[in-house]
Amino acid sequence: MSRSGVPSVAVAVCGFGFVVVIGVHMAGLISQALMFALAGQNFLLIYGLCAIAYIWQSVERWRKVVGFAVA
Fold first, then answer.
1. What is the C-alpha to C-alpha distance for residues 51 and 68, in angstroms, rounded to an integer?
2. What integer best gives the mean pLDDT of the chain?
3. pLDDT > 80? residue 5
4. Within 13 Å of residue 62, how many CA atoms lie on the same side as its CB?
5. What's the rounded mean pLDDT across residues 51-58?
6. Under a CB-based contact definition with an 8 Å cutoff, are residues 21 and 13 in contact?
7. 7 vs 4, 12, 13, 21, 50, CA distance in Å?
8. Cα torsion for 49, 8, 30, 34, to the nearest 10°?
9. Counting Cβ atoms within 10 Å, is residue 43 exposed (0-12), middle (13-18) or buried (19+)?
10. Residue 39 buriedness (CB in 10 A; 0-12 / 13-18 / 19+)
């Protein structure tokens, strides 16, 4: 992390990932529809993992109930 608080390595890795995905799409290896489908699946997977982590880390029972309701 830089002095200004910007996580420069994370920003660079994300930028590189975007460039790779755009390059693969421009090369015709994957379609735009497939990219959107994969992005949606990744969102749901990460959302579910975050809900599981919240439930796991919660101490109070009501927080666990909220976690299950959100999941």
1. 7
2. 88
3. no
4. 0
5. 89
6. no
7. 9, 9, 10, 21, 21
8. 30
9. exposed
10. exposed
Structure tokens of 36?
A: 């959107």
What are the tens digits of pLDDT across the range 18-47? 899 889 999 999 998 998 898 899 999 999
Find how far residue 8's CA is from the centre of its chain: 18
* Rounded alpha-carbon distances, angstroms, from residue 30 to 17, 21, 56: 15, 9, 37
What tokens does 68 get? Answer: 């299950």
The pLDDT of residue 40 is 92
Asked if residues 39 and 30 have their Cβ atoms less than 8 Å apart, the reply is no
Report the pLDDT value the prediction gives residue 46, as an integer from 0 to 100.
92
